[in-house]
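[Meeting: bench + compute handoff]

Bench side (C.D.) handed over the final construct sequence. Compute side (W.E.) agreed to return the predicted structure before the next meeting so the bench team could plan truncations. Sequence as handed over:
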Amino acid sequence: MMRTFWPAFKRTFMRAFMPAGMSKFMPKLLPVFSLAIVVLRGTPAGAQASADTAVTVKFGAFVDGYYAYDFNRPPTIDRAFTTQPARHNEFNVNLAHVEAVLSGEKVRGRLAVHFGTSVQSNYAGEPRVGAYSGGDVSRFIQEAVVGVKLSPTLWIDGGIFLSHIGSESWISRDNLTYTRSLIAEFSPYYQSGVKLTWQATPSLSAQLDVVNGWQNVSETNSSKAVGARLDWTASPKVTLSAYNLIGNEAPDTADAQLRIFQGASVRVVPTEKLTLVGSFDFGFQDLVGETGRWYGTSIIAHVKATSRTALVARVERYADPKQVIVVTGGPHAFRANGASVGIDVTPAPRVLWRSELRTMAGRDAVFPGRDGGKNGDTFLVSSLALTF
């Protein structure tokens, strides 16, 4: 069959795609094209099996749509202080992404592009220094990271990746609560740089990061920030984590303002139906003539009521007296206590329906409302998410 197919393919290809002047090069180029066709169609069965065991690529997608109602009725529809949900009285997409994940013995990587109101909110602070920075393009990149194994227990990864800080995930499906705690909202969701990950023992892993700064892809200055994380599985039921980030957050035109952040969390699973997570963060930064300090804490309880339903509750506290992290836009700083309750339902495989009622109470009227500033905020959100 190939004896009759190849001459016909050769004549057709040359007529259709090659200018007359290039036809003389075809005897040299055609072997290259034929090799490419073989590679694209697949290698022999034995070699293909070997390649599949070495490297695999999996594709996936996720969509999280929601409706939220804020009883303060913010006049701009944008909600303050929480990025999930970011809009009031509106059906919208919180987060949608598509991904390709590569896994191999020596290499790994993930490319994920995303959009949604949480993306718009989180990338709103991307700096614009120079002509080629800002969030115009970077806000569409959830992760673009490449990893290489340096030894059996050591990996190096570089690119844009999800933050090493905290115990909560940007992706709602992977989070105990639908909304994020205040300590998660006010610490980095993503980073740009390189990281070393060391699996010291089966129960202890360590990570070292060198990144551009505090949640930014584009640079703000000529300094870099460094961070670390330790995760220790003390027992099958208890995991302890500690993480930090240290860097200068001032532009090069101003005096350096060193920011030092530290956090810790504990995850306890006493039974197969109950999960408890407690976290505490604090930080301080050099300011002009003073030092600004902030702290936050949260406790989350997740209970599997049935095979398809779960109940979740949270209490939390956050305070930033000098407005280092949370800028209220007025003279009063953000200090608030919060609580939330929610229910998760899995009506079908890959589908997750989550509803949550959340309230926050502060000392000052920093929460925007249609009738002016409020001392607190209460909202209800319901989400339907699908994993492809």
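W.E. noted at the follow-up: The longest helix spans residues 2-17. C.D. will use this when planning the next construct.
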